[in-house]
Structures
1.
Amino acid sequence: MALPAFAIYSFLYLYPSISNLWNSTKRWDGVLPPEFIGARNFTYLATNDDLFLKVVGNNFRFAFVVVILQTTFSLLFATFLLNNTKTTIFLRVVYFFPTILSSVSVGLIWLFLYNPNYGLINATAKSIGIMKEPGINWLGDGRYALYAIAITQVWFHTGQMVVIYVAGLQQIPAELYEAAEVDGASRWQQFKSITWPMALPTTAVVVAYTTIQSFRAFDLVYAMTQGGPNNASDVLVTLIYNTAFASYKFGYASAQSVLLVVTVLLITWLQRRTLRVNYGDR
Amino acid sequence: MKTKGLSTFASLRAGVVALVASALVITPLAVAHAADAPTFGKACTTEGVSTGQKTTSLICQTGANGKLTWQRVRLGGSYAAPVGSLTPPKGTIEFHHWRGEDKVVLQGIIDKFQAKYPGTFINQVIMTSGDYGNLALTKISANPKAAVFVTMRGGQFGNFYKAGMLKDLTSQRYTKQNFIQSALTPGTVDGRIYGLPYQSLFNNPIYNAELFTKNGWKVPTTWSQTLAFCKTAKAAGYIPFAWPGATRGNAGQILNSFMMNSAPYATVLKNATDIDTGKADLTIDWFTNIAKQYKQMADAGCFPANATGYTDTVAPADFAAGKAAIYPTGTFGMSSVTKLNPDMKGKMKIMGLITTDAKPYYEGITNNTFILSVNAKASASDQRIANAFISFLATAPIAQEYAVGTSQHVSVIDVDYSANIDLLNTSDIMGKKLLLAPRFLFLNQGVVRDKLEDALIAIVGGADITKTLADTSKIIKQGLGA
């Protein structure tokens, strides 16, 4: 029974992964025959590639912002949308709506919002007097571009996480809240002592998923800044894409993607360890 | 048209003014002074002036007697007349390209081809230019049905050639007789022609002539005048140059102008090649001076506010709305401007961005791109269809339909641009001394060109010149070594 599944898995996942690993040991421009160079791509990445290190740093900052904001907002919204009333169901649909949009459309919408001269954000901020001319150059200034995209990513995917949280929070027995109310616990105390601890398994899923999503980020970055200005918003996948398809260094790009996989594996492992610390081995 | 570069229009000693220009300038002159009408073999006075871009056109050149006389323009490989299209076998092939904005016009042409040759079908496969630049080779090399495709000048064409994807088109009659030979160099390797650049672009700033007249501005022809113009236009409330600094591809168009008069061409070629191969850093005087001029333009208020966040959707919109005086990309940008504001039809003209106060080496930029090729890995039958389709595109009426419909000048002989007022108004650039877009001398797009253009954009955004160039040089060298 398992054989067909294994065959499909091998064809779709195992073969490309092993092929990528093998390619990472080659110098290959995608045109001429590849040349085997052992671990040289990896040693060069580790010792000679400042851009790669910069982009790794970018990606960690991006993931940090997205994970914190997306987890916080989705938990917050989910607690308000827990009951199955017509209004909450409607709001869940509203929050989920961005998730079904294409990422390029989302990128274009936010490009307009962030436009420094005509965009809604700067125009609003200027009109209420909290921003001076010429306004903030959200995507054109290296200090802001990465964070501006991170906020877009949060807007794009929070609804998805709200749904996961709602499903998780609805598993918490209502009796616990009833008992807490009888004991005179405030809403905050109920959240701190019941909701948060009981929601931790869901939080672990949300954090793990959001982290992986952040390290796989490509489409929004590509649509909004293409990694600019001057690589300030480049993340690992945009760098890998450009290394392969703009610089025609397929072997080197394969090595970069191997390191991306290792990074994501390490983070996921660390998160699982943290989960065990909090829950024993439940 | 005097040009120099990887491709050269040097076979024409001076400018070949398009048929359009002749309609505007030469013909009225001839009507007014019939006795002075250009006549083959008769004396002429202005070297380089021609009566058009046709096989029947005349050009004023020094003859065998050492005197200026009207001689026949030889645009093709011979004086032979252009040929008609080849007859294809039945079948279906794909035509891969990146010009989504030309889809409708090209489909009209394809429909005509299919109607002329029943049983033969061409399907357009279009990607965005960014994706095409990155993915076309991978996709087309795995797809023999992609029998006809285009490449961009420089690195992409070179990679397709290295991959053995390009069929030799040198011996085709339409190659020799239908195309302006001097436009073919970007598709030529070791004397053999593997690609036919269909478009003749002029990557020079387009200006709003009506706005200039209304404000009494003169088109700047020196560097000092350019900076002074920026201050004047800005003070009057206009964006002097709607420069799309957020979009690397179009922001980089002005680099061509900065390079063309930065040094004699041999020096430009050497410096660009040295940077491209890692022999020189961006910190060399030549490139540092270019960076300083970008900064000077920024300081003079030439660029819009928040220029590094100013996209190439906002730039043509501002230009089309009359908020900006100059749209510094090229003739290829005119169609999007008129789509945004049809009233702009006939109001756009073209200028050279001159970055020196000394006598310029060149007056403008040209580029021959949208290089048509036949897939060497397609079946013989599909190659014949592809060949026939290119020959069809290379006939004057079809090329004219494409040119007029898309507002692009083309490299095909005997095309009449008079049906498109914007092509007509910008054709005068053909008579100037042009350089083949030198930005593409940086063949390593991802590692070198993108990085150095990003550095220039950052400098406009306020980054320190010395530090930015040093940091970018390091990244470039590391990238080249990987």
2.
Amino acid sequence: MSSLPDIAPQPARLVWQPAAVVAITRETPRVKIFRLKPADWHGFTAGQHVDVRLTAPDGYQAERSYSIGSAPDGSGEIELVIDLIDEGEVSPFFHEVVEIGDEIEIRGPIGGHFIWRAEDGGPLLLIAGGSGLVPLMSVLRYRAQAAPEIPAALIYSARRREDLIWCGELLRRAAEDPNFSLFATLSRETAPTEGIRHGRIDRALVDAALESLPAPPKTTFLCGSNPFVSAASTFALDAGIPFASIKAERYGG
Amino acid sequence: MATRGFIGKRPTDGVGDRLPPGQYLTEDFPVLSAGPTPRVGLAEWRFTLKDGVRPVMSWDWEAFNRLPQSKLTRDIHCVTKWSKFNTAWSGVMVDDILAEAGIAAPSEWTLAHAYDGYTTNVPTEDLVGGKAMVATHFEGKPLIADHGGPARLLVPHLYFWKSAKWVNGLQFTRRDEAGFWELRGYHMRGDPWREQRFTGD
């Protein structure tokens, strides 16, 4: 198997295909990670997502989009991170019913804008709210493997300590990687945790992340709920980041 | 292929037949765009109609709002899977913009332009004949910036990425020129009832 990342654009035609569930991890009280092995997979680009389609015995179908959290790594497998929405239709099914060995229908990879390849260069400023971390984690993991010399900073806001996805890995990467800085902040937690800040994202946090980079970011990626992305993009614009260098992905109401 | 153990939450009566394939109903109004929300002041706002590279007519905010006002109440469908029913818009029909400019649509294809640099291509026949407007109000109030204000294109029978936010012009083109998402793998027409999400659908 090649050790080179299997970077691939969105295919010319997206076909539904089965993907076997090969691993399930409970990452936080509300987040499970599903590792899938699609039947016919030709790689993806960090930042992309897949569509998932569930079919009931009578033919009723539900579709949703989920970002890929793993890096394009040549494994032929992808990790989808599914946040439990209590009143939802698809996320409770994943959390309560799906088991290793099940087959789930997917198509992808999808997305030609909110993506990053090593040749796109840096520095990179990544700003994530909640599960908005997922596509940015793919970017970070891929960068560490393909272009660790490109400077990157991540601002990551979650509600509580227990809601931080991949907390251990992020803290380890920040400690070990001289070109990566982590600015994690908790909006509803009071207990102190080493290496993690408190409070909502604000202009000062954006400024601190910018100061950690040796040059202004070439691209800024924002991902999270709409209120989070709206707030973060205002701070980013106020901090002087050019409008055209900001890529955003929003979800929810 | 049936998914083991999946039953699903069925839409209630009267909802299912209004939902295109793969869509679910939301009561919220989610916001989607590829970048930050541009800040467009009414004093600098302009809307320009072009035939190829040639400007046909241009309006400032005041002049645009003197054009005939119309209302459209429609179901809308976003390619990210949500649909919202009975959204109530008002603004200026594309038909009335063309009438004011004194032209009939000069080509089969149109490219919509927006303040954030976004573009989207729409077949001209999907814009005329009472199908589409440049909307300035949502549910009786001026359209907020997050939803595309001061003005957005509204083509409610196509996936909602065709309804360009912060629209500042319509350009008739000689061929079907792919817009922002269409260049990135999304469908050239985008009919939700035929589930035309991506190239090749």
